[in-house]
Amino acid sequence: MITFKQLEAIYWITELGSFAAAADRLNTTQSAISKRVQELEQQFSVEIFDRSKRTARLTEKGQEILHYAKSLLEERDNFIERISSSQVLIRHFRLGVTELTAMTWLPQLVKEIKTEYPRVSIEPEVELSATLFDRLMDDTIDLIVIPDVFNDSRCVSVPLKAVENAWMGVPELHTGEEPLSLKELSNFTMLVQGTRSGTGLVYGRWLSEHNITPSKTIHCESMLAQIGFTVSGLGVSYLPVPVASQLVQDGRLKHIPTQTRLPHVRYAVLYRHDRSSNFKKRIAEMAQQCCDFRTFFAESR
């Protein structure tokens, strides 16, 4: 008889690349995972994994079994969700966010999810936008909150609020108060986020549209590093106004006025159309209600 534990073992071995990793993910031992696979192989007299390889690689028949395993596991999750009230729903929820969300309204969202779905285990991930999008497409994460830069028909996109950014630097870097042209601004070293950052993509395109090529750039893959580099006086940078407000009040940073203002960065919730569920729709609704980039490390209400 086929069991969901056997199907889960095959799914996670394939997703994570090894029996040991699947055992960790399913909170069991490697020998238990091996036994589940062997039981299924013996039942149908097939080989699911090619054991001549060093990594867990599916045979042709194993690929076919994985296809049906994914479908059955998805149907099981949908069945459980539909017959369960929110108070008894049990599932693992893989939530991906970028740094800004993690540092502002994520605590409130987590509180709301735990209140409505107390038995859901939240597994948060903080990554760059492109990494989170790739993982969503690879089905290793359930739902992501990122800048709205990926127009992909495979995804449900739920709009959230926008973030105000401004050019900033240490006070001694620019002492004038007259707004600078973008050409004048480009004479400074610019601290920018890379192309795997949603915000980096938005402002990279924006600078290109205005035919601005900085004299020098320093790329930061982390927003915290970008803030640190800016406070260190290494150049000017676009920073979220709410996050940097205290540094401005303390006199460690200042707004650099420009003739052309930066566009706001719109955020969105994304999840896959083929993995849609009432649960994810509800989480997206909660995200819309909780989304507030104005307070740094907002306290749960």
TrEMBL record:
<comment type="similarity">
    <text>Belongs to the LysR transcriptional regulatory family.</text>
</comment>
<dbReference type="InterPro" id="IPR000847">
    <property type="entry name" value="LysR_HTH_N"/>
</dbReference>
<keyword id="KW-0805">Transcription regulation</keyword>
<dbReference type="Pfam" id="PF00126">
    <property type="entry name" value="HTH_1"/>
</dbReference>
<protein>
    <submittedName>
        <fullName>LysR family transcriptional regulator</fullName>
    </submittedName>
</protein>
<dbReference type="InterPro" id="IPR036388">
    <property type="entry name" value="WH-like_DNA-bd_sf"/>
</dbReference>
<feature type="domain" description="HTH lysR-type">
    <location>
        <begin position="2"/>
        <end position="59"/>
    </location>
</feature>
<dbReference type="GO" id="GO:0000976">
    <property type="term" value="F:transcription cis-regulatory region binding"/>
</dbReference>
<keyword id="KW-0238">DNA-binding</keyword>
<dbReference type="InterPro" id="IPR005119">
    <property type="entry name" value="LysR_subst-bd"/>
</dbReference>
<keyword id="KW-0804">Transcription</keyword>
<dbReference type="InterPro" id="IPR036390">
    <property type="entry name" value="WH_DNA-bd_sf"/>
</dbReference>
<dbReference type="GO" id="GO:0003700">
    <property type="term" value="F:DNA-binding transcription factor activity"/>
</dbReference>
<dbReference type="Pfam" id="PF03466">
    <property type="entry name" value="LysR_substrate"/>
</dbReference>
